[in-house]
Amino acid sequence: GAVVSQHPSRVICKSGTSVKIECRSLDFQATTMFWYRQFPKQSLMLMATSNEGSKATYEQGVEKDKFLINHASLTLSTLTVTSAHPEDSSFYICSASPVGPGNEQFFGPGTRLTVL
Amino acid sequence: AQKVTQAQTEISVVEKEDVTLDCVYETRDTTYYLFWYKQPPSGELVFLIRRNSFDEQNEISGRYSWNFQKSTSSFNFTITASQVVDSAVYFCALSGQGGSEKLVFGKGTKLTVNP
């Protein structure tokens, strides 16, 4: 089956630093990748839709200047949390959809970010 | 706007009991997809099923079964003879046409199966 990886799986950083999270589709090409955020004991909320070669589409209330998304290739999307603060601590999950209509999304294992 | 409601926040059962997790959705799309995911404590989402809006046939996979009823906009999930390993948070989700669009998740139901 299709595999999506995320790196790192867990990161702890100091307040004010920037953190980059990578999402890779390992055995398929994905024109679209999605970034979700999940706070403790809550549901997954879509942050942005990332399309290869174009600017990401952000959901309402998500700061595009704080959460930088780059989808430079058909197998890699990155999310950079800039100037992270404790309230950004969360579980970040990406998903990727293979090229072609009607395909399902495949989720990465998630990245747990803790900002001290 | 799309919306998914999982009214049951937490359910606790004893092993071998059957349990049904409810999911009610709202959408204006005529073509849409419904999903169920399992999220164990590790956090990784485990895909369980995808169903498109034109396929109302119920599905059974081992101890899992799903009941899709468009008339009531529901897509309920039943685990038969529950096991401790079934303990997890279960999410119902909805996407628009194509199935590869963004997912709208319900708030999840935490299932605890006690030995």
Estimate percent helicity of chain A. under 10%
The stretches of 5 or more residues of chain B where confidence is low (pLDDT under 50) are none
Mean pLDDT across every amino acid position of chain B = 93
> What is the number of beta strands of chain B?
12
Give the assembly state of these chains.
Answer: heterodimer
The computed structural class of chain B is mainly beta
Please give the count of helices of chain A.
Answer: 0
Which chains make the largest contact? A-B, 24 and 21 residues
Q: Unreliable stretches of chain A, pLDDT < 50, 5 or more residues?
A: none
**Overall pLDDT metric of chain A:** 92
Question: Percent helix among the residues of chain B?
Answer: under 10%
**Structural class by sheet pairing and helices of chain A:** mainly beta
What percentage of amino acids of chain A are in beta strands? over 45%
Helices of chain B, by number, come to 0
Description:
The complex is a heterodimer of chains A (116) and B (115). Chain A is globular and about 40 Å long. Helices cover 0% and strands 54% of the residues of chain A. Chain A has 116 residues and is an all-beta fold. In chain A, the strands form 2 sheets. In chain A, strands 2, 4, 5, 6, 9, 10 and 11 form a 7-stranded mixed beta sheet that branches. A 4-stranded antiparallel beta sheet of chain A has the order 1-3-8-7, with no helix packed on it. Chain A has no helices and 11 strands. Chain A has strands at 4-7, 10-13, 19-25, 30-38, 44-51, 57-58, 67-73, 76-81, 90-98, 106-107, 111-115. In chain B, strands 2, 5, 6, 10, 11 and 12 form a 6-stranded mixed beta sheet that branches. Chain B is globular, with a radius of gyration of 14 Å. Helices cover 0% and strands 51% of the residues of chain B. Chain B has 115 residues and is mainly beta. Chain A binds chain B through residues 32, 34, 36, 42-46, 49, 91, 93, 95, 97-98, 101-107, 109-110, 112, and chain B through 33, 35, 37, 42-45, 47, 50, 91, 95, 98-100, 102-108.
